[in-house]
Amino acid sequence: MSPRLRDSALMLGLLALLAVGLVGAVTATGWDEVRAQITKLSIPQGAALLALSLVNYLFRGLRWHLFARHLGLPLSLATNLRHFLGGFAMTVTPGRVGELVRMRWIKRETGWAFERTAPLVLVDRASDLAAMAVLMGAALVASGSQISGAVPVVIAALLAAFIATRPRLLASLAQFGHRSTGKAPRLFARIRRAARSLEPFSKGGTLFAGSTLALCGWLAEGMAFYLLLHWMGAEVHAASAIAIFLFATLAGGLTGAPGGLGGAEAAMIALLSLEGVPLAMSVPATVLIRLTTLWFAILIGLVVFPFAERLSKKVQYGLE
Fold first, then answer.
1. Mean pLDDT per segment of 10 residues, for the chain of length 320 residues?
2. Contact assessment for residue 163 and residue 257, using Cβ atoms and an 8 Å cutoff
3. Which residue in 11, 14, 160, 237 is deepest, having the highest Cβ count within 10 Å?
4. Helix (H) and strand (E) counts in the chain
5. Which value, to the nearest 10 degrees, does the dihedral of the CA atoms of residues 37, 39, 42, 43 take?
6. Is 145 left (phi over 0), alpha (psi -120 to 50) or beta?
């Protein structure tokens, strides 16, 4: 089976399992009750949820531009935003590796090899992890919520962010991995080269500024989740809603499933239940927040992707 076919089969399998789980939860709750909760959401309220998601994407897109300029890439804000948003089309690939299409577009338009642009991916992910971990930690303290496993997730996210932004440490780990396994010498060599190229981000306030932008973006989506619950009539503190949203997002990502499918939804419903939110509210709330965050991002990516692909080819062949 080819890698593409395998990835498609994995994606379809996950979607099928997710659908079965959600249908089972809705059936157990009652279709009429779930439908009644969904109809509570008005069109302006739905638009507000999408607007808050857009705030997240734009703040993180500005961060991508900040990192790209700091790395020395001669690309405009519009071009970097096109690359960033277009990459969302590949969010549901395993481990989100499909988002590396952004590196292909950059190579076409600038001639920069993957090893030179790899730090963008690393610091982008590290910045997200750091921002989400800090925000979730603050939300947990503010709400007093006792989410099982939350502290280890926060620590793991901060540790991963720390390693990914420490060039010498990352290079040492790559060297150790090569010596320990004796395999994939080219892969470990690339990791070492990428680690060395992280040097521009190891000093100064660029990483801090980028993480601040990411924190504002994720806060917007966390607030969207709180507003959705509030409009449905769930009595959940804003800080608790933000903590649940971020924990579910991180937990889903740790499963390695495309877009955190299955894991994020299950965690969200379970945590809402612990807050006393009935399934009649938690299930539709989870479905709606995933539609207005994950699937909305994918929709934007699918719209932008063809333009990013075509324009990068024009630049590559000197047609522009």
1. 52 54 49 64 92 97 94 92 91 65 90 84 86 90 77 78 71 72 71 71 78 95 95 91 92 69 84 88 88 89 90 70
2. no
3. 14
4. 14, 0
5. 130
6. beta
Rounded Cα gap, residues 216 and 42, in angstroms = 26
**Which amino acid makes up residue 306?**
P
Please report, for residues 27, 36, 104, 213, the alpha-carbon distance to residue 88 in angstroms, rounded to integers and kept in the order given. Answer: 32, 32, 14, 18
- Please, which residues have CB within 8 angstroms of residue 65's CB and are 6 or more apart in sequence? 77, 80, 81, 84
Distances, alpha carbon 87 to alpha carbons 127, 144, 173, 177, in Å: 17, 37, 28, 30
How far, in Å, CA of 170 to CA of 269, rounded? 36
Where do we find the tokens 């001669």? 74
